[in-house]
Write a structure and sequence with these properties.
The chain has helices at 23-34, 49-83, 93-97, 107-118, 121-124, 131-139, 142-147, 175-181, 210-213, 238-271, 289-293, 305-326, and strands at residues 10-16, 39-46, 152-159, 165-169, 191-193, 196-200, 220-224, 282-286. It is of the alpha/beta class and 360 residues long. Strands 1, 2, 3, 4, 5, 6, 7 and 8 form an eight-stranded mixed beta sheet that branches.
């Protein structure tokens, strides 16, 4: 008779940011957490690449438990890499010789970047051809995702007409809801669902935290942060300015929600408001500020398998370092000082990478 699965000692909710190919960093974090039987996952809120990671986990969990989820994540990211193998947007020879992952010197990338600034996807791609959509539909079984009772998944998109967030969850998750969450308006037509048009959820919730605040299964919220919060150097070129504007925009909603959680914490602490309705949360951040700064925005389109594996290994080390340092904090206290977000001198906490690389 097979042994019963070990009951996790600690249950957490996860908030997963989007970031194109940099979502492979999150893959590494998730792989490490899933490999640890002490950690259970109740809910996941994801946007864009974070949403894709989230539905891959739900699909895998429903099919084969924790190991099934790990396999589903690897299979999904390998499919992403295979699908981009013949893309004209590849690293230049000089980048390869210099061991750089950036696309900044790639003529096809530069041409595509300029093209999308001058013409809309309605003009450039009137047939709305999107290979990523076909890949997601092929790799993710949304019937299994919607049946999954091991984890609750929330996917956020931005309503183009109202400018408000819409969060989708089981049993309404589909390839359309995930692609709506990942719809960059300069690259793809808005995704229509129930007569409404949606763009990338990162504009409003990257990722949305409010569904997790209402979760009663746990008080611990782990945010996997893959977009740099701080850059010390002033952007000076046109590309640097646009990239930094995008980073600020896609982090703004997360910072706003974290600040709201901090204000609720203050009220609970000072007024004793904690109840079934108002619960204090323990907030944790998995993030490596220094490592993120060397990832160019153009590398978000680099889907080479070697690069995705490199990012996965980084993410694994982040999670390993977090668990080594903060496992005892889970269920007891926040390991991230939310009050620091109110300071103009805010610097994100640095997680020191573990020695020895990944071992999963």
């Amino acid at each position: 008779m097979p042994a019963k699965p070990q009951k996790p000692e600690k249950i957490v909710d996860l908030a997963l940011q989007g970031g194109g190919a940099h979502g492979a960093l999150t893959w590494g974090v998730l792989d490490r957490l899933l490999a640890d039987p002490r950690i259970g996952i109740a809910c996941i809120s994801g946007t864009s690449a974070g949403a894709m990671n989230a539905v891959a986990i739900a699909d895998g969990l429903q099919r084969g438990g924790r190991e099934g989820a790990r396999e589903a994540l690897e299979r999904f990211w390998k499919a992403v890499s295979d699908g981009a193998r013949y893309s004209p947007i590849q690293r230049s020879l000089w980048d390869r010789l210099g061991d750089r992952w950036s696309m900044d010197a790639n003529p096809a990338y530069l041409f595509f970047e300029q093209l999308t600034r001058q013409f809309s996807p309605y003009e450039l791609n009137p047939l709305d051809i999107n290979p990523l959509r076909d890949l997601v539909a092929r790799e993710i079984d949304f019937e299994r995702v919607n049946r999954c009772n091991q984890v609750k998944v929330f996917v956020t998109a931005t309503n183009v007409r109202t400018g408000r967030a819409r969060t989708f969850s089981q049993p309404e998750l589909s390839v359309d809801t995930v692609m709506a969450s990942a719809c960059l308006p300069f690259m793809f037509k808005a995704v229509e669902i129930d007569g409404e048009a949606y763009w990338d959820g990162g504009y409003i919730g990257n990722p949305a935290l409010y569904p997790l605040v209402e979760d009663t299964a746990t008080r611990d919220l782990i945010v996997v942060q893959i977009n740099p919060l701080v850059r010390e150097e002033l952007p000076r070129t046109g590309r640097e300015i646009i990239n930094r504007m995008n980073e600020i925009t896609f982090n703004a909603s997360l910072i706003k929600e974290l600040r709201s959680i901090e204000l609720l914490h203050r009220l609970i602490e000072s007024e004793g408001l904690e109840s079934e309705r108002y619960r204090d949360l323990f907030v944790h951040l998995i993030h490596a500020h220094e490592e993120l700064k060397d990832l160019d925005a153009s590398s978000k389109l680099n889907a080479e398998w070697a690069y995705l594996q490199h990012l996965r290994e980084r993410g694994w080390r982040w999670a390993e370092a977090f668990l080594d340092k903060h496992y005892d904090d889970i269920g007891q206290r926040s390991s991230f000082d939310l009050q620091s977000l109110f300071s103009d001198s805010f610097r994100p906490p640095e997680i020191e990478a573990c020695e020895g690389g990944e071992n999963g």
